Amino acid sequence: MSVLVVGLSHRTAPVDLLERATLTGGAAEKLLDDVVGSDHAGEAIVLSTCNRVEVYADVDKFHGGLAQTSELLARRAGVPIDELTPHLYVHYEDRAVAHLFAVACGLDSMVVGESQILGQVRAALRQAQDHGTAGRTLGALAQQALRVGKRARTETGIDRAGRSLVTAGLHEAERTLGPVTGQTALVVGAGSMSALAATLLSRAGAAHVVVANRTLANAERLATAVGGVAVSLEALPQALAEADLVVSCTGAVGHVLSAEDLAAAAHARGGKPMVVVDLALPRDVAPDAHDLPGVTIVDLATLARVLEATEHAEDVEATREIVADEVTAFLGWQRASQVAPTVVALRDMADGVVRAELTRLAGRLPDLDPRARAEIEQTVQRVVDKVLHAPTVRVKQLAGAPGGDSYAEALRELFELDPQAVDAVSGGELPLITTDNDQPE
What's the rounded Cα separation, in Å, for the pair 263 and 267? Predict the structure, then answer.
């Protein structure tokens, strides 16, 4: 089996397509079931964030796995496969490992180095584990990706290489409005991104922070934490008319801020400028609101262009070196671990031969002195151990190199090992590799 990645992200697809392809409700879990129920995949993890939708699958055939996984992704995303295909990227085997490690480090994020992706990878792994679709291969890969992401943030300044989407959005708003100090701010939504926005706005000296949310209790909880006031979505038109800066991130399906609502707010403001920072995907702001006079929309597409220039070259390069080193280490460990069941099966076979021969000896020499019998048994076992020691140690070393799986196959052929015996050994969980900088959770 080999790891296959099929996905699309802010790098390959326009925002409108990304928001259409967002997996809402239980679509991600249904996609997990679809993939492992297909002809070529045994494991699956789905990573769905505001900037990417990716399927990781452990497949037995590249072309068959690619075709089926792409079709299933298109079906659950609700986008025709012909429309989705030009924007899909595909990674396989070594490149798939490298891609996930880079994603976990934040190298592939819209905001380079952002830390939220680590939590999103962890959540995707947990979802797959709870759903029974992450096994030996993808479970170990995702766990190691989390460790690589933590190592990169410990050893480099990658987490400082890019600003958070919220910080970047507020910075862009200030280019139109000036400093946040003294402004009236409206936060639409009460999730983690909205909470961060409300906190930053309060710290920056916003005169008023208003929180609007469908569930008023959640809005009140956030408003209380930042010294603001809460309103329901029914009161949104009035709140919009009073807001200089609006930050929206609700995760709702459909547009929360229509062109009509924003046009009415702009009219009520008498030409006073308003900036709306839309951090949601699917977008909270209707596309036809972008041309309204007096209203400046800052969305994810805008931030993507702005943030391209925020990379710190040295930190990014150092992180890329860490990813390259970790990919080499992981692939070597993976190849070596694949030969381990063959080595165990070989030793089990040898032990079986020793036991059979000693039993036969006991039948032929029933009166053999017990001390002599024990000495013979120890001698035979030592001979077998010494004969097998060098080839089993060497095959583990060779297995860590590219193409190393051929040595395990050679052992199985030379010693005529029972495939079922090897599979039985392979059924156990593989130990996770760690670095000096990060221990298992």
Answer: 6
